[in-house]
Write a structure and sequence with these properties.
disordered N terminus; 7-stranded mixed sheet; 5-stranded mixed barrel; 4 domains; single chain; Collagenase (Catalytic Domain); alpha+beta
Length: 626
């Protein structure tokens, strides 16, 4: 937010719409007007000196408002529009406080994420709590730093205008000490400050209402207790309404927000609440129409801010940022469940079954990787899979005695964060309509199979939710289902869901090869074809024989080909699973395949898809001779 003092104040939306050249022109006009006002002041007779000073300060304040908006939107442009040293050196002290100056600071970085009201992406911001004067400075970087967790201690130099500091490549940021490990468990003692303005003293919520939403029966505290299996909880206090000595802002920047927060902390002390005695500070403002965000949270830091929002879903979300989490995203690879990252998009806020992806007054629990990130799952609740096998995991909503998450390394991708490598893993978890998930109406499809996410293991990295039935546009059926599989052909990993019930889901993990199961039978008589040779086109396992039920089994490479050629009822040249025409057999028959999902393993052509028949339970596709 930006100061309301001055002759000109523009909304954020107007600033965005102004072209680069218009911004330059307006800023240069401010500089020209300021220099003119300075000359007028310097040459004014004694009788007119006071008025000339007031005019000069007014122009200086208005310029500061505009320059801070440019700094936040385009730091490089800000640095190109600075006043010359001669002008700065002759300014009276009353005006200098609103002008740019070189500063050297040392303090704690705070990494702040803004959550918008319309779901659009808003740039993350940094601030620095200066060790010397305890002042919070908004930071604007020409080159974004690599630090992504609050708590990192740095020293830096830059150009400050009021309480905003702009840094470019020549103004360095030096690491003093990395962010210290912070606990995501235990009691999170929280002070909620209710804040309005001297020209708008509206009080849309009562302290009792907010107290119930944070600490009551169905509240932030109840949500985190359930999610963490009683390892994390929230308690604390709510102030009465605090009126800060500012008008409601007509535009929005992070520097002025720091001023509002400082005033609120001072007033809270007068009410008997010392902010230093709390490890979480929540600032709940009345709605500031100039700000397009609904809430902000310092990632790994102590503070959250709410712009007129009074629902527990938003409170939970921003406090999740404070605990170190970022967003729960949806990973869209078009018609495929997974593909090279260059062919996919990470869609912000689109994991609807995690409050870090979609806030609601009926919030869903956190997803599997988020619970893992926060340390709420013990070693016995997590299995890191390194070999093929069958695994059963229990629902995520309640702490179990056995596994609740499968982790499978995704060898082809990793993330470099803060200079360190973090390997991507697939996370498999299982959801059931229990507790908050029941209240949020978890879709039956989500409760019928394992959910799949990708996550790097870095707490502040976004999780990516995978749709195992891509291309249909239906999000609730993104989880696996019995008989279906998720496969990564690049890394030759396949996971098939065998069964599920209220107590758990059973998954079969394959590396390099996947087992194909089929059935051959005479369509006319309905009898199985017993003892028929199935040629597979596999060097290691070229053929197999149907058993007394007409069933056959063989293994094929993940991301490979196979053929189904049945003798004595022959059909030449069925290379697979790309089926071709030219059958020679005279007896009508049918075969079905399980274990090879064409859509997942990328193996259907249009001819075969056209001739597919409705499949029996447990099979992926069925072919019947014409």
């Amino acid at each position: 937010m930006r100061s309301t003092i001055g002759v000109m104040a523009f909304s954020l939306a107007i600033f965005v719409s102004i072209s680069f050249f218009s911004k330059v022109t307006i800023a240069e006009d401010y500089n020209t007007n300021l220099k003119s006002a300075l000359v007028t002041y310097q040459s004014a007779p004694v009788a007119d000196k006071t008025k000339a000073l007031i005019d000069l300060v007014s122009v200086t304040q208005a310029r500061a408002v505009y320059m801070k908006s440019i700094a936040e939107d385009n730091p490089g442009l800000f640095l190109s529009l600075l006043l010359d040293s001669a002008t700065l050196g002759t300014m009276p002290v009353e005006a200098k406080q609103f002008l740019e100056r070189e500063v050297a600071l040392k303090g704690t970085l705070r990494f702040v994420h803004y959550d918008t009201l319309d779901g659009s992406v808003f740039p993350d911001r940094y601030s620095l709590l200066n060790i010397v004067d305890k002042q919070e400075y908004a930071l604007a970087f020409v080159n974004k730093p690599t630090y992504s967790l609050s708590g990192t201690v740095v020293s830096l130099s830059g150009v400050a205008i009021e309480n905003m500091v702009v840094l470019d490549a020549s103004r360095t940021v030096t690491l003093v000490s990395p962010a210290l490990p912070f606990s995501t468990k235990g009691v999170q003692k929280t002070l909620v400050m209710l804040i309005n303005f001297k020209n708008n003293t509206n009080q849309p919520f009562t302290p009792a209402y907010i107290r119930e939403h944070f600490f009551g029966t169905r509240s932030v505290d109840a949500y985190y207790r359930e999610n963490s299996f009683n390892q994390t909880s929230f308690s604390g206090d709510v102030t009465t309404w605090i009126t800060v000595p500012y008008n409601m802002p007509t535009s929005c920047d992070s520097a002025l927000l720091s001023d509002f927060k400082q005033s609120a902390r001072n007033e809270a002390i007068k009410q008997g609440f010392n902010p230093d005695n709390y490890n979480r500070l929540a600032y709940l403002f009345i709605r500031m129409g100039a700000c397009i965000w609904g809430g902000t949270g310092q990632i790994g830091g102590p503070e959250s801010v709410y712009n007129g929002e009074g629902g527990i879903g938003v409170f939970i979300h921003e406090l999740g940022h404070n605990l170190g989490l970022h967003h729960a995203n949806f990973f869209d690879c078009g018609q495929l469940a997974i593909a090279p990252y260059s062919s996919c998009s990470s869609l912000e806020y689109r994991d609807y079954y995690d409050d870090m992806g979609s806030t609601s007054d009926f919030p869903f629990q956190f997803n599997g990787p988020h619970k893992f990130a926060l340390g709420w799952l013990a070693t016995s609740n997590t299995v890191t899979v390194t070999k093929a096998g069958t695994y059963t995991i229990a629902p995520l909503e309640k702490l179990a005695n056995g596994p609740q998450i499968l982790r499978i390394k995704k060898p082809d991708t990793y993330q470099i964060i803060d200079g360190k490598r973090y390997d991507d893993y697939y996370y498999f978890s299982y959801r059931q309509p229990i507790g908050f998930d029941a209240d949020a109406l978890l879709p039956p499809e989500m409760a019928a199979g394992a959910s799949v996410h990708i996550w790097s293991g870095y707490i502040a990295d976004k999780t990516q939710f995978i749709d195992t039935t891509p291309g249909d546009g239906i999000r609730p059926n993104s989880a696996l289902r019995d008989g279906a599989q998720f496969a990564d052909p690049i890394n030759k990993i396949a996971i098939k869901q065998l069964k599920h019930d209220a107590n758990g889901v059973t998954l079969q993990v394959f590396y390099n090869t996947v087992q194909v199961a089929g059935k051959a039978f005479n369509e006319t008589t309905g009898k199985p074809i017993v003892g028929a040779t199935i040629e597979t086109c596999q060097v290691a396992n070229p053929s197999t024989v149907t058993n007394s039920l007409g069933n056959f089994f063989f293994s094929v490479p993940i991301k490979g080909q196979f053929c189904v050629k049945i003798n004595p009822v022959s059909q030449p040249g069925l290379s697979g699973p790309f089926l071709t025409t030219g059958f020679e057999g005279r007896v009508k028959y049918e075969f079905q395949i399980a274990g090879w999902d064409c859509a997942v393993l990328h193996g259907c052509n249009s001819w075969q898809t056209t001739l597919d028949r409705p499949v029996d339970n447990g099979y992926n596709f069925k072919y019947r001779q014409p």
